[in-house]
Amino acid sequence: MININGKPDNSYRYKMEPIKSSICGKGNGIFTIIDNLHIISKQINQPANILLKFLSIYNGSIANEEKMSITGGYTSDKLQNDIQVYINFFVICSKCGVPEIIPQLKKESKKNITLEFKCSACGLVSSVICNNKSQFKICDIIIKYLDKNSWSTSKGTMIVSDNKIKEENILSCEENNENKDEINPFD
After folding, report:
1. What is the DSSP letter of 182?
2. Is the dihedral of CA 55, 59, 60, 63 positive or negative?
3. pLDDT per residue over 75-89, tens digit each?
């Protein structure tokens, strides 16, 4: 397991598997299959298809979502560095440095929709400023994804920021405590 932020710290909480890929085909038909993209996407709380599309756009290739592959021959080290670029821009909070960013849509009008990042750790809400073409394309893909789907997060890897979920957890804990016979060994 490696740290999500890419730094060598043994006590860092957020970990992910290193990328495993295999190069298939010959000549013009060469492509790279990313074997553990679904696992990595769950560990960094990003949809696998958006991560695959980023890798294809960043490398100037075509993505195949059925095979979880991109055209061209890329080493695991190259793809790991590319995923780190994605993580630094789309996953890690610029204020606190914790990888708990959740993208949100800000709809000013029907045609004017912008992408914002909300950190579930520190609460920072920031607008996305794209510096290059690949970042702009991925922001556009994330906006289209959020229009149709909700952003799901893995349980246990992110701080819960929804008060309803917190209240439900507190109520269920209180109910469990009421149902149990309390035994005090010091009585």
Report:
1. P
2. negative
3. 999 999 999 999 988
